[in-house]
Specification:
single chain; mainly alpha; Arc Repressor Mutant, subunit A; 2 strands; globular
Length: 149
């Protein structure tokens, strides 16, 4: 069984490699790294469309997300609308102007996944996916039990 520092180091290395892979997208489109992450997050998680969702699930600083959201709105890449039931809640939506950015993010993600799983058989990739889903299930259970989710 891997030791926790090894697992955490691996997670950090994966995040660092993914961020480095995304650099081409934010440079090409004149975005900050946080803006790029927000666009990718909203594309992949349309049901999680508030700044709070982004802060919590992407583990980004609240101030950085607020600033990036405002910048993306000014650039015409995001729109916001108030929740009908809870006026304090603001929903974010990507505009059609993000389509070329999203396409580049999708290309980076596909390339990243290909590089990450280089040398893995299809069966090993399926096993990884299965184990990863079990980890997420355990994390979700423990987080709910501890009230951290």
């Amino acid at each position: 069984m891997p030791q926790m520092p090894d697992l955490l180091s691996t997670i950090r290395m994966i995040i660092k490699l993914y961020d480095a892979s995304l650099k081409s997208v934010w440079v090409k489109h004149g975005l900050s790294p946080v803006e790029t992450h927000i666009i990718g997050f909203l594309y992949h998680n349309p049901q999680l469309d508030t700044a709070s969702d982004i802060v919590e699930l992407r583990m980004l600083q609240k101030g950085n997300v607020s600033q990036a959201v405002e910048s993306l709105i000014q650039k015409g890449l995001l729109t916001r609308r108030q929740d009908q039931a809870d006026r304090r809640k603001i929903h974010l939506s990507l505009t059609p102007l993000t389509q070329p950015i999203v396409e580049d993010i999708l290309q980076v993600r596909a390339s990243f996944q290909e590089r990450l799983f280089r040398g893995f058989t299809p069966e090993e990739q399926e096993l990884f996916e299965s184990l990863n889903q079990r980890l997420v299930k355990n994390i979700t259970f423990e987080s709910e039990r501890e009230g951290t989710l």
